[in-house]
UniProtKB/TrEMBL annotation:
Gene3D superfamilies in the cross-refs: alpha/beta hydrolase
Domain AB hydrolase-1: 8-116
Example GO BP: salicylic acid metabolic process
Coiled coil regions in record: none
UniProt name for this protein: AB hydrolase-1 domain-containing protein
Lineage: Eukaryota, Viridiplantae, Streptophyta, Embryophyta, Tracheophyta
Amino acid sequence: MSEEKKKHFILVHGVGHGAWCWYKVKPLLEASGHRVSALNLAACGIDTTRSITEITTCEQYSEPLMKVLSSLPSDEKVVLVGHSFGGLSISMAMDKFPDKISVSVFLTAFMPDTKHSPSFVIEKQSS
């Protein structure tokens, strides 16, 4: 595969999971010549640096993803894949690092509106 077509995929798990949940997808993408990072969000998977009871905000929960994205060279663009509640984390990353993301994939994932309150859709349907 040519260098231009190789992608860097960052795989973000859903709630109650960890990077381990990508154990079948990661090697398939790598076998196709792509770079793949499957990470553990805060207090998930094998991340024992904090207890889940210490995580009180979505920003704290998504911190490992934000650290990875901030460490990338300014000219690198990634493909974000978020599963389930991981959609919240990749949405936050899209807002914070729009120039580092070529595309985001919401795999049966929560797709929030990061500009309005969580109740925005319900309020609009009620009016």
